[in-house]
Amino acid sequence: MEIKYDSVYYSKNENTSLEKLILEDINLELKEGKINGIIGKCGSGKTTFVELLNALLLPTLGSIQIGDYQIEKDCKIKDINNLRVELGYVFGNPKRQFFLPTVKEEIAFGMKQFSYKLDKIDSRISDALKMVGLDDSYLERDPMKLSNGEMRKVAIASILAFNPKVLIFDEPTLGLDSISEKSFLKMLKMLKNKYHKTIVIVTHDINMIHKIADYLFVFHEGKMVLEGTKYEVFESELLEQYEVVRPSIMEFSYQVLQKKGIKLGYRDDVNDLIKDIYRHAS
Amino acid sequence: MIEIQDLIYQYEKNDLNYIFNKLSLTLEKGSFTTLIGPIGSGKSTLVKILLGLIKVDNYIKIDDLVLCTSNMKKIRNKIGVIFENPDEIFVSETVMDEIAFSLENQNKSKKEIWKKVEEIANYVGIKPLLECDPHTLSEGEKRLVSLASALVIDPQILILDEALSMLDEISKRKIFKILKECNEKGVTILNITHDLNESLYGNDIVLLQGGKVLLHGSKEDVLKQETKLKRAGLELPFLADLSIRLMYYGILDHMILDMDEMVNAIWK
Predict the structure, then answer these.
(1) Domain map (residue ranges) of chain A
(2) What are the pLDDT digits (tens) for B22-50?
(3) Which residues 6+ apart lie within 8 Å of A108 measured at CB?
(4) CA-CA 20 to 30 A from B180: which of A33, B157, B203, B236?
């Protein structure tokens, strides 16, 4: 599904004395079937960008093309409601999303709202749990009593149950320890490779997004200022200006190049980096 | 100084799952410690115990005061705390009132209060925000307001309970710079987090696991314990990981946790 922002502006508190421009002239196309990372410092407009994508907010100016849908200022919610089935939005904090006593009811809730046939719901719940790596023993458990990592998986399952084409995550690894983070990243790769989902991740966790993203968009003060593969973005000398740090492993290679004039190349893995260092060490 | 001796705590009386099972820990005055623990290891419970929000019978001493009801007011005036979610803590409509809040509870004159609030706001760099509603600020600015509210009482101990996990690296660095300055002036700092990367900004590390202190020492010493840290589900910070491997290959002879220093040590 094609997703294209065309000269999109968004202002908060429009036509009041508190009016504030949050996003300015956004033009971009998300990469279909890939993991798209949206990065930038706090307050750069990243969250507003994805809230527009899911039509939680409507643009003040410009339009967003999502498949056959067009999101614009004067859109009627009833016209774009079906769009929400195609775009699954997983909130940053799953606790804010849960309100039912069992995992089963929690996952079924959304489907019932979009009037899925009841006999289909049960099998869809099991399938969705399987996709995130949980089995049916979770069905009757209280979602609020799960570990943080499990809660996040249930939150994702409740979205996957719709079978959306696009998955949107806002700060998905916040509060996860490194074991849960690893299993989450593995799941994302599986959703991309096996189920061909387009994935959008908004985050300030540079080390995490570096491990997983295919393509990155950098936001700064309401504008999209830089885009490209992770190598193109993290090699850029403009990053300091946009107040984005590099992942530690790439920062190291960058510093070596700047200070010692030695080109190590940009590595994802410390083991590969060690070989380069060994070759170039004095 | 914070001194905890043989702390035992369970959520319910007959519960066999001990949150703390004879936990003993001493944090020296003027130390800057990062307390690391997996989710559910009792990190936040420990903060509540230190603030007297959860009552325990064990021996806990904060500076020269034993933790008990009659000393509680004095102890709370010594400790500044920054919690994970500032939105749940903010009570005032303006940043100015928010920072002044704890001073108003200390029977100080209006003039004295405003002078102090301005001074702290200036120091933390949020003077232009004094008239704003704290809930409308960015996450980074909210943490700075929380920091100012904690610093305004001139605390001897500053505790951060997962306070920085929501922040981007640049905003984090800004706050750690202020914390470092406070620490150099003698304030004891305890940063509680699950992110081992944050430990690089402090001096010591405590690893909490299974209701006990598993490791306690300088960051250089603790970060060498790769196996124990990994078993606790923690990922080593990049520079610690690189140091350990370079030491193995004989390129380095000690752990280096600073990027510039690392580059200069490899290519002298």
Answers:
(1) 3-235, 247-282
(2) 899 999 999 999 999 877 778 888 988 99
(3) A121, A125, A161
(4) B236
